[in-house]
Amino acid sequence: MAIVLKLMIICLNVVYFFLKILPTKNKILFMSRQSNKPSIDFVLINEKISKKYNTIFLCKTLDGKENAKFSTMIKYGLHMFKQMYHLATAKVCILDSYIPTISILKHKKILTIIQMWHSNGTMKKFGYSSLNKAEGNNYKYINILKMHKNYDIVFASSEAYKEHLVKGFNISKEKILTYSLPRIDLLSDKQYEKQIRNKIFKEYPNLESKKKNIIYAPTFRKDESEFKKHIIDLIENIDFSKYNLVIKLHPLSKIHLGNIKNVIIDNKFSSFDMLFIADILISDYSCIIYEAGIRNIKLYFYAYDLEEYEKNRGLALDYNELPGYTFKTGKELSEVLEKKYDKIYLKHFINKYVENSTKCTEKIVKLIEEKMK
Asked: Has this prediction a pTM greater than 0.90?
């Protein structure tokens, strides 16, 4: 497999050599493997620059990743040639995830590659910091693919977050600039808040009651064999006379909960949008906590598998540093929900990891425009 990968990389670079003969255009390229459609961050940037520059979106997931079907891999391979053409003719490329064609190809010096990643902070280890973990990356292949190489600029939402990116991307700190993601602007946008709340309440009228709204947004686990049991334990210990519960499973999750009385299992809105009606967020190792904290939403951490997760994937943060309460059983949850919550510590934590929460899109657009000159 390693030999095949190396031969493929050589062939792609030969093709790319001739593509680079094509003239560079006044073009900005957005690339992602996170989703098949542009993220809200890409959309917000595009709204401010599309009238001035030509913008291209290449957003495509590789379903199954290394275990993908052969036909899926062929389709993604063809997509890579499309990426190569636009990389050869663009001035700026903006990413929110790892893209193989970025790291394995030798690019024109005129091309500026900006990695804005897809979270405003971190929880779990990734990239080089998760090497040889059960759910992490294999050093042999990460080395062949030169993962996270060729970035000119990387965005971090704070000085504290930079250290995690240095380890995860295996890059120098000098490449990392302090910029928060564009979607942070929406968290204080009253018009956007009203629009999203109206949509959610129209779909789920019960959430507009006097009860507190709990959003449960767990991260993805490769092994979900025990996951459903713990979700049920959580549900059984919610006092539905006081709380509404919305469950937001990760898009890759294979768990099927069916219809459960008093529980909304939502797949129509993003976890981000659900923050606009949330009073409480329960998570585990998901970076949604940073956006929730900016909105001053109470955070609780359902870490029933903390030791196992630390062993298999690894955490970038000390779990004791997290704001709010941590619990391992539904019974513990029912007890901690009634305890006094320290929002001063919550604010301290968020300010440490998200230094800038105003005009985020505007600042990024200004940087992009400088690179387009």
From this structure: yes
